[in-house]
Amino acid sequence: MYKNFKEMPIWQNAMEVAERIFLLTEKLPRKEDYGFTSQIRRSAVSISANIAEAFGRQHNKDKINFYCFSRGSIAETMSHLEYGYRVNYLSQEEVSDINKKLEMLNNNINKVIKTLRNR
Question: What is the pTM of this model?
Answer without folding.
Answer: 0.95
